[in-house]
């Protein structure tokens, strides 16, 4: 669902995928190979929202701001299920954990990882490569090369997902029983702990 608002029409690159159950409104610019999941709301009604190339905003996320603000989710930013980004800027190749809330004028540095269910207070600035957790959120250590390699691999899956959705996502009627030949899906990505053991 793409909506104009007060003359602003969202701009979405043709390689990006916005799920039909997401809502993108007003002054929003979405770059290449971005994925916007079902239930996500990206509301550029009171200010500008820019998603650079390769960003994903997953299911049931909200991106919004106070009036007159402009925010940027930089290249390859990864926003996990249910997160709220309200007037904050996200650095390149960062990971925002599920159900995290990031408040106005906060700055998440490049390659930061914010743990699930963290609360980042307004005006908080975190330097690049910070591992951030808690309520209120604080830095507990530096993100290692291994952690950022794992995160980058996961984001690449979401950067491929728009093409996969265009190729195979279809609205269908459900089956009434499980087919005998229903295959198993490949385990092509590992948890961080499994990744470390490779």
UniProtKB/TrEMBL annotation:
<dbReference type="InterPro" id="IPR011004">
    <property type="entry name" value="Trimer_LpxA-like_sf"/>
</dbReference>
<protein>
    <submittedName>
        <fullName>Carbonic anhydrase</fullName>
    </submittedName>
</protein>
<dbReference type="Pfam" id="PF00132">
    <property type="entry name" value="Hexapep"/>
</dbReference>
<dbReference type="InterPro" id="IPR050484">
    <property type="entry name" value="Transf_Hexapept/Carb_Anhydrase"/>
</dbReference>
<dbReference type="InterPro" id="IPR001451">
    <property type="entry name" value="Hexapep"/>
</dbReference>
């Amino acid at each position: 669902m793409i909506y104009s608002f007060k003359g602003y029409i969202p701009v979405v690159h043709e390689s990006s995928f916005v799920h039909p159950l997401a809502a993108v409104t007003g002054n929003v610019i979405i770059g290449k190979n971005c994925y916007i999941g079902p239930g996500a709301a990206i509301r550029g009604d009171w200010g500008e929202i820019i998603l650079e190339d390769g960003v994903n905003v997953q299911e049931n996320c909200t991106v919004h701001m106070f009036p007159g603000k402009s925010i940027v989710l930089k290249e390859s930013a990864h926003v996990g299920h249910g997160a709220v980004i309200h007037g904050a800027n996200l650095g390149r190749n960062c990971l925002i954990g599920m159900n995290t809330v990031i408040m106005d004028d906060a700055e998440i540095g490049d390659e930061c990882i914010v743990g699930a269910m963290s609360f980042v207070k307004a005006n908080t600035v975190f330097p690049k490569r910070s591992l951030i957790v808690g309520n209120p959120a604080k830095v507990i250590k530096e993100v290692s090369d291994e952690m950022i390699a794992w995160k980058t691999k996961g984001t690449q899956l979401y950067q491929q997902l728009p093409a996969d959705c265009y190729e195979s996502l279809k609205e269908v009627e459900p089956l009434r029983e499980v087919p005998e030949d229903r295959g198993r899906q490949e385990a092509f990505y590992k948890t961080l702990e499994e990744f470390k053991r490779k």
